[in-house]
Amino acid sequence: xxxxxxxxxxxKEGAAPATDQDAILREERRRERRSRWYRRDVRWSPYALIAxxxxxxxxxxxxxxxxxxxxxxxxxxxxxxxxxEWVGLRNFSRLLSDDFFWNALRNTLTIxxxxxxxxxxxxxxxxxxxxxxxxxxxxxxxxxxxxxxxSVAAAxxxxxxxxxxxxxxxxxxxxxxxxxxxxxxxxxxxxxxxVSTIVIWRWTGYNALIYLAAMQSIPDDLYESAALDGASRWxxxxxxxxxxxxxxxxxxxxxxxxxxxxxxxxxxxxNGSAGANGGSDHQFQTLGLYLxxxxxxxxxxxxxxxxxxxxxxxxxxxxxxxxxxxxxxxKSS
Amino acid sequence: MRxxxxxxxxxxxxxxxxxxxxxxxxxxxxxxxxxSDGATSASSSGGGGSDKGKTTLTMGLFGAFGYQxxxxxxxxxxxxxxxxxxxxxxxxxxxxxxxxxxHLGTGSGLADIQGVEISNINEVTxxxxxxxxxxxxxxxxxxxxFLPWKWGQATNAAGKTIGLGTDIGPQGICYRKDLFAKAGxxxxxxxxxxxxxxxxxxxxxxxxxFQAKAPSGVSFVDAAGGVLNAILGGSPDRFYDKNGKxxxxxxxxxxxxxxxxxGFAEAKLSARLQQFTPSWDQGYANSKFATVACPPWMxxxxxxxxxxxxxxxxxxxxxxxxxxxxxxxxxxxEAGKNKDEAAKLAAWLTAPEQQATLFTKRASFPSSQxxxxxxxxxxxKHEYFDNxxxxxxxxxxxxxxxIQTLGPKDLIIQQNLSDVGMLQVDQKGTSSKDGWNAAVxxxxxxxxx
Lengths: 333, 449
Hints:
Chain A is mostly helical. Chain A has helices spanning 17-71, 90-96, 99-131, 137-149, 152-162, 169-176, 188-215, 220-228, 233-261, 265-270, 287-297, 301-332; strands spanning 74-75, 85-86.
């Protein structure tokens, strides 16, 4: 709007006081209006700007969450998704006696532990090494991140070949050192180990870079004074680096735990074409896979929704534990 | 300064609003120009020319139906200049079927013609019939040209036929002649078929004879689960009785099929591979096994995986009993905008001549028995399989196929029997009894709503 110039009072012959009064009044009203518009603008424009996010969040985040909760209280099949029969908490209570659910929960837990723990330890070690001045450090930093850039599907399909029973490269290597071939897919521990290696391979570099970033913000004088006191590099790592990284480590633990709880693509594709059962004995079926099997293979939307909400509650629990731990840590330091 | 930030902020808001509005408007205009009166839009001008006044028919399919590759769409569009055919296809049925159900439920997002896999056809016929057209009465559809059992699979109790059969999968036994010779068995396809004719138990006995003299590292079959599927694929009654009650647990036929298949694992006649996994493919390339039950659509797969080295070594014999694996149907949703045109197209695509073309070009075996009389089908030979008369072999299997009682959850029951129960017996060495119990437990859990 380019009409910012104040409305010129009419300069006709001898402006009557009445018209003058009028002009002033009009001007005042105009100012009033503009400042009201301005106030409204300041007040509401930010909402308009963030509205797209909230619209999408409502449509694709909150609504599905609530609707899943609603569906979990019903018996509803994908063959007739509008046909819902109220069953209360039955879908949840039956999970308590559902062997397949407990098996999936146990698998999720064990795969989570054997993938998260070594992954974070290795990430810490890699970050520590990258933190020293070394030639081509940029190259190594990019190199550790490349697995993360690979798609889950591509990585998993390659790992399936590596872990093949008859012609897999790992069994071939084991054979070279005189160890009998291992049937990776069929054993409980072997299959879970194989799935974990895919997760570890993919996420170690990502965590290493996070640790590296945190390490670089540790002041040098800490190391210098430690060195003056005669601390070895290992001692420096233990007594300077690790304590300074504590909040970062906690963050990666939480993020990795959430990732492990939702583990889906790797175990699904590790099973070849056989679908979502996670092996003939369900030996590597995770909660995510069991949810998928109930909803999209067996077509029981109500049961699948109950599993989804249970997973959500488990994640909330993890969040609460993390909050308590981090508060304890902050107090102690 | 103040005014500047204010006006620039306002400009941003205006731009955002304008952008949103433009997006919404263009969204609308795209929707409205899509159908019949067809202004040429980028998406609907498949052939590049102007589509003025043309009707666009969409095909929603899974896997490889092969219509496009066989040139059938082009042929139909040439015959019907007012029709444009577009196809979307999803590779795997397990990713295709659940969305199809939700789309049928909401009556939106549907293509004019939707494919349905044989293992889902009973569920669709029983639960979605009111949302699909009765194609039995559509113009150009001739009931008698289809195999009766194929026609029956898509017809509900009220006599409404919601799907037209495309291909079927009558099976043969693909076998390695060179390995049979080394094990001292006959190699001629007639003689091989006679070895086990009439009874799958005889197939097991031949397997034992083979294994006794087989070259080391070679097994008689690829997987016990494959044998189980082949036997069940030819059983007239399986998991459901005529009234739709689930009887797989007590049906002696299912149990006998289970015991025979488990026999292959127990007698160590199986290469312990899981079908359609990378190691199964490697098994072909490395001659790990001598026989596999094979529907026509698998011949090309074997040829790909076994490669040039296997040419002339593979051959096809008849199965002990006729058996079917796979096949599909075309359905026309009621919610479609061009139902009548879609029904005409579906009828044309499943007519004998087109099914014969599809067989010649894509090895999809016709479900139209009228097509069997055509030389392109009845006299077909397969060069890779030592010129086996596959037309003759598969036509016989198709015609002798018993009418099967299907049920809505056949897929889940069969999958759990082979991928949970039989796989444990085959690959983990679980006892036949424990494997069966594990399968039953998994099935009961899967079927419980």
